[in-house]
Design goal:
442 residues, Tachylectin-2, Chain A, mainly beta, Jelly Rolls
Length: 442
């Protein structure tokens, strides 16, 4: 059986399987649609009192392909309601997939900028009714050729600067490594290539950079990239001068092995906020059979620390959905405070045991390790979110790790943290679901 036939057979099995909402691994307060494949968040924007999140979506199966833009909306970044799909692969320049991009407001009009395929080109869609319906402009594609021979040419990130729009595009140069290409425009239609905003070394940061995010934070600028082939999100902190970015420090955005292709935006209170795709870490045949794949992370907020590293913590809106912990179920949050700078704990999610330890220099969660130095008088703090197959761990506003676990039983989540002060909360389901129909369906 070839791969196409194999996936088709699994998809058919998934169609007759139990409802995904009854699946014990299916998350309840992390966003994802009720079924099928989802990956990168796209077009994150706060507009007219609503948060809009678009996302890469295959409406036909639980594996990658046939990329559309799904759409959901929230007033608080926690309670999400589904909306009809926003973009379809229905034009010659995007018939092979509507790939990732961003949302901006141009002349008072919310506008989506995305990558069409094949080949990879940059395209624009606008809306006239409060981000509910979209139309692709006649001038598409607005950028139809990369700057020479490149490893990729996708995932636009836009910002305004001195009366112009700037666009960062992810890619790389074959013999050099990953890079971000910089363009400028006054009208989102006519674009001029300037130069690489930043580029890395192939042996250290990969051959191709996806999903660039570039933004000011404190007195510096930050660049996030998703590095291939490492499948890690790297961050660089540095100076932005003469439309070039000069890194001064760097790090891994999340050491949990699941977060990829995140996107940032500014929330209604001015906080730089991130949501990212949490990939499946189980075999493909298992998630295709289950009928769903991919989860969006909880929102996180950034701060620039004095040592030029990124501080990260859960978005404060998460506190608004807490409920009393009853000791049952697999939807929980634990706030843990250890008296000293060294600690050990065990998190149990059903049949899965996730050991957690901090030795004064490194935080390790279920075998994933991140460096972390605390001040001499600073206690060790954890904030742990469990949502069935999703675990997100935050430590001392410095380190974040997102992991996937697939327990073989539904025993309640449990935390054992000797000597620590623990506050436990239940988090109820916050996502509404519906089947997302293709265009033309009733």
């Amino acid at each position: 059986m070839n791969r196409r036939s194999f996936l088709a057979a699994l998809a058919a099995a998934a169609a007759s399987a139990q409802n995904t909402l009854e699946d014990p691994h299916f998350p309840r307060y992390h966003f994802r649609p009720a079924k099928n494949w989802m990956n990168d968040p796209n077009g994150l924007i706060y507009w007219n009192g609503e948060y809009h999140m678009f996302y890469q979506y295959n409406p036909n199966a639980a594996y990658w392909g046939d990329m559309h833009w799904g759409h959901t909306v929230s007033t608080d970044l926690m309670h999400w309601k589904p909306l009809p799909m926003a973009l379809y692969p229905d034009k010659p320049y995007d018939k092979d997939g509507v790939f990732s991009g961003c949302a901006v407001v141009h002349n008072g009009i919310p506008t989506l900028v995305y990558t069409g395929t094949k080949p990879e080109t940059q395209c624009v869609a606008t809306t006239s009714n409060n981000l509910r319906q979209f139309h692709k402009i006649e001038q598409n594609p607005v950028i139809d050729e990369p700057p020479g021979k490149v490893t990729g040419f996708r995932d636009p990130c836009l910002w305004q600067e001195n009366g112009e729009w700037m666009m960062a595009l992810g890619g790389g140069f074959p013999e050099v490594g990953g890079a971000v290409f910089l363009y400028s425009s006054k009208d989102l239609i006519s674009w001029k290539y300037l130069h690489p905003l930043c580029q890395g070394e192939k042996s250290k940061t990969g051959h191709n950079w996806e999903c660039p995010n570039f933004f000011p934070l404190g007195n510096r600028h930050v660049l996030l990239i998703s590095a291939e082939p490492y499948r890690k999100v790297l961050y660089f902190v540095g100076h932005y001068e003469n439309r070039r970015f000069i890194p001064e420090s760097e790090g891994v955005m999340d050491a949990g092995g699941s977060l990829y292709a995140p996107q940032t935006f500014v929330d209604k209170d001015g906080r730089r906020t991130l949501i990212g795709w949490l990939t499946e870490t189980r075999p493909e045949k298992e998630f295709v059979k289950a009928g769903w794949s991919g989860v969006q992370s909880l929102p996180r907020v950034f701060a620039l620390r004095n040592d030029k590293t990124l501080g990260v913590e859960p978005h404060p809106n998460l506190r608004s959905v807490r409920d009393s912990w009853t000791g049952t179920g697999a939807q929980a949050e634990f706030e843990v405070m250890f008296p000293g700078a060294r600690a050990k704990a065990d998190l149990h999610v059903g049949s899965e045991a996730l050991p957690i330890s901090y030795d004064g220099s490194d935080l390790t969660v279920a075998g994933h390790t991140a460096p972390m130095k605390l001040d001499a008088s600073e206690p060790f703090r954890l904030d742990i979110f469990v949502d069935h197959s999703v675990v997100e761990v935050f430590a001392n506003s410095r380190v974040a790790m997102a992991l996937r676990v697939y327990p073989s039983n539904s025993d309640p989540v449990h935390l054992n943290a000797p000597g620590a002060k623990v506050a436990a909360y239940r988090i109820p389901a916050t996502v509404e679901y519906e089947i997302i129909a293709r265009r033309g369906s009733p």
